[in-house]
Write a structure and sequence with these properties.
Helix 3 packs parallel to helix 7 and helix 5 crosses helix 8. The protein is of the alpha+beta class. The strands form four sheets. The protein has a five-stranded antiparallel sheet. Strands 10-9-8-13-14 form a five-stranded mixed sheet. It has helices at about 1-15, 50-55, 80-100, 130, 150-165, 190-200, 215-220, 260-270, and strands at about 15-25, 30-35, 45, 60-70, 70-80, 120, 125-130, 135-140, 175-180, 205-210, 225-230, 235, 240-245, 250-255. The termini are far apart. The model is unreliable at about 1-15 and about 275-279 (pLDDT under 50). Helices cover about 30% and strands about 30% of the residues.
Length: about 280
């Protein structure tokens, strides 16, 4: 009986309830004032460290309320902006049809155009394909709770090294790095922000993206990334894809790790500044 009661209390303490509203302010210690849709009493919810750094103020969000002691914490914070959701749904629908039309030959190879996309970055901004065109891009996939050192952590470390190498090249200011999560249910913008901070990522150059699960599954197929959920984790392959400013795939490196200097040279060549020396 005692064990049953303790279990019930633990579940009650961590039980979650959905909620939404417009963020009015976020204090330095993470308390967010949120105005519900019908303008009732303002909610006071505690944001995680990552969500405190996301630009949620003035934005409409949805989240789960989790009670821990006397604190009402907002977990899984994502955008609930109606126009953004419309755009995402439109892109997701188009991509779904494109994936179905391609059948088994869905993976895009070098010289093919990158697929369309509409996902949110670690600043809570909606990022679409058109926002990336005009920039040479290095793109990969990870999930933040990966604990296999030679997989996602190695891949993110390589991306950090690539960003550092590009920062030394005056002609590489236009280059962008993109990492897409294949675990969007866990990896919200706030989680991605905290993850990127842990690696010392340059948030201007390197966008971490999350969003609609169905869209991300299709993007993974188009980029040749396969996953399998097994024993509480995600088993997957890995690759780095280099994309031209015109949105055309130019190179693919299989595996989680890659030579940052080699990829930097490829990206610099695509930006039209090959041969530029570092400072």
């Amino acid at each position: 009986m005692i064990r049953t009661c303790l279990f019930f209390l633990a579940v009650a303490r961590l039980s979650a309830a959905p909620e939404s509203g417009k963020v009015a302010s976020v204090s330095a210690d993470g308390w967010a004032k949120i105005i519900p849709p019908k303008g009732e009493t303002v909610f006071l919810r505690r944001f995680s460290e990552g969500d405190r750094k996301v630009g949620w103020v003035g934005r409409t969000i949805r989240y789960e309320v989790v009670m821990e002691g006397k604190e009402s914490q907002a977990r899984g914070v994502v955008s609930a902006d109606a126009e953004e959701l419309r755009q995402v749904a439109e892109v997701t629908d188009v991509l779904r049809r494109e994936t179905a039309d391609k059948g088994r030959m869905v993976t895009r190879m070098p010289n093919e155009l990158m697929p369309n996309m509409a996902l949110w970055d670690q600043a809570g901004r909606l990022v679409m394909k058109k926002d990336l065109l005009g920039h040479p891009i290095a793109l990969n996939f990870v999930f933040t709770s990966c604990r296999v050192a030679r997989m996602c952590p190695a891949s993110t470390s390589c991306m950090k090294q690539l960003g550092d190498a590009l920062a030394k090249l005056p002609g590489a200011a236009n280059v962008r790095l993109v990492t897409i999560t294949f675990d969007p249910e866990t990896d919200t913008p706030g989680v991605l922000r905290a993850y990127a901070d842990g690696y010392g990522i340059d948030h201007v150059r390197h966008r971490f993206l999350t969003g609609d699960e169905a869209q991300i599954k299709d993007l993974m197929r188009h980029y040749g990334i396969q996953t399998l959920r097994d024993d509480g984790t995600i088993v997957h392959n890995a690759a780095l894809i280099v994309i031209s400013p015109e949105g055309r795939i130019t190179y693919r490196s299989e595996g989680p790790s890659f030579d940052a200097e080699d990829i930097a040279a490829r990206l610099l060549k695509l930006s039209g500044t090959a041969g530029t020396k570092s400072r």
